[in-house]
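Appendix B. Raw example, untouched.
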Amino acid sequence: MVASNEVPQDPELEALYDRFLLRHYVKPLSEDLWRDLLKYSWNIERYGYPQPEVTLDRDTLENVNKLIYRVNFDVVESKLLKIFSMFESKNLHVTDRRKGKALKVIAAHAILNNRLIVNEEDLMVLRFIVPHDIDDFERVNIILSEELKTSYRYLRELEEIAISVKEVNNYIVSFPNINSRFIEYRLLEIYRDLESTRDRVLSMIRETSDEKVHKKGAEVVENINEVLEKIKRKMEGR
């Protein structure tokens, strides 16, 4: 495992970089998490890093590794080939080495979900394999979310809605307490838009049995209801 502030651009390092199969881009912490950042950083400075807990022994890891080679890819083989082809057409080159090594990660995802048969959900791990640099992550996510029948598509949309609701909430809080027809009309317009958004979230919850989607959807609905209540109070002059 390695961490870096930039992707190596030197052609001589490309072969080495290609051997780092799993890649992940970590964004800087948002301002609302800075307080926790300072707290945990200071504790690390004082006491050092906490000792990791051992949750799997060596024998278990070896048995899981053996299971990887029993996983069946027949159901998704055509879809996987199509996705690799789409990446190439979008100038997202995946080396032959990475195509082959990706199978182990896909198989491992299936095993961790108690399956020996790969389904489309497992192909989402490609979002950690295909990107070459930071800009590629979003492009890869879009292609996968459009091509695969997975809960990720719902979670991605719910996250976008959650961000929008947060922005609306900040906008409502900053709204002046002035009794005017324009402000009343604007508040009513926002209220109706939020009601439509809430209906969309409820539809997503009904369309899937995925627990993560249900949990995230319930959180978003709760946030929307809180903003709707704030709008009501604004309209009533409270």
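End of appendix B.
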